[in-house]
Amino acid sequence: MNTPASMLTPARATLVACAVLVAACATPTASGPGAPPVSEAPVAAGAGGLFGSGLSEALEPQRARLAQLLRGTPVAVEATAERALRIAVPLKNSFEPGRSAVRPALAAVLDQVATGFKPYAATSELRIATPDDPNARVAGRLPKERSASVRDYLVARGVPVSRMPVLAATSGDAGVELLVVDRPLNAK
C-alpha cells in the first residue's frame, strides 16, 4: 500500500529540501513600512512551438522538470527565441558580494541542472554567464572566476567540461545565467 510516508524516497526528499532552500533564500520582503510586497520572478513557459515552448525533444523535458521544481522561487526557467533553455538565478542567491564561491541556493539549482543535462550531454551545450561586481578591485576578473566556479561545480556533478565551452559575463546585476542549447558534438 502506498502511504504518504512510503512515497517519500531519499531522492524526493532531496528535491524537496533543495526547493525549500531556494525558496527560503528568496523570500521577498518589503522595502519599508507600508511598502507593497516584492514580486517573485516568474517561471516562464516561453514562446510557442512544437512542445509549446519551442524547445527540442531533449530540452523540453528539462524545462518542464526545472519549472516544476523551481516554481515559487526567484529562479527563471524559460525558452528563448533562439530555442535554448535559459535558467537565471538572481545574484543575491548565487554569490556573496565580491566572491566566486557557489552559495547553497545556487548549488541546489546547479544540482538539478546537472541531473537534467547529463543524459543529453552528447547533443547539448551548457553556456555559463555570471555578473561582475561593480566594487571589485580588478574589473572583469570576477565574472570569469564565478563562471569557472559554476563550471567546476557542474563538472564535479558529472557534466563533461567539453560541453561547457562558453564562459561569459552578464550585464548589470542579472545573476547567473545558464543557457542550454542543442549542439551535436562535432558542430562548430
Please characterize this protein's 3D structure.
The protein has helices spanning 10-25, 59-69, 104-117, 141-156; strands at residues 76-79, 85-89, 124-131, 167-170, 176-182. With 188 residues, the chain is an alpha+beta fold. A 5-stranded mixed β-sheet has the order 1-2-5-3-4. β1 (76-79) and β2 form a beta hairpin. The radius of gyration is 17 Å and the shape is globular.
Compile the SSE list and pairings:
Layout: H1 10-25, H2 59-69, E1 76-79, E2 85-89, H3 104-117, E3 124-131, H4 141-156, E4 167-170, E5 176-182
Parallel strand pairs: 3-4
Antiparallel strand pairs: 1-2, 2-5, 3-5
Question: How do you describe this structure in short?
Answer:
The chain is an alpha+beta fold and 188 residues long. 30% of the residues lie in helices and 15% in strands.
| Pattern of helices and strands | HHEEHEHEE
Content-based structural category: alpha+beta
Task: Characterize the overall form.
Answer: globular
Under CATH, the topology is which?
60s Ribosomal Protein L30, Chain: A
Q: What's the Cα radius of gyration?
A: 17 Å
Mean pLDDT: 74
Number of strands: 5
Secondary structure tally, helices: 4
Q: What is the CATH architecture assignment?
A: 2-Layer Sandwich
Strand order of the largest sheet: 1-2-5-3-4
Q: Number of folding domains?
A: 1
Q: Characterize the biggest β-sheet.
A: 5 strands, mixed
Could you name the CATH class?
Alpha Beta
How many angstroms does the end-to-end distance come to? 53 Å
Task: Report the CATH superfamily.
Answer: OmpA-like domain
The parts where pLDDT drops under 50 for at least 5 residues are 1-51
Helix content range: 25-40%
How large is the share of residues in beta strands? 5-15%
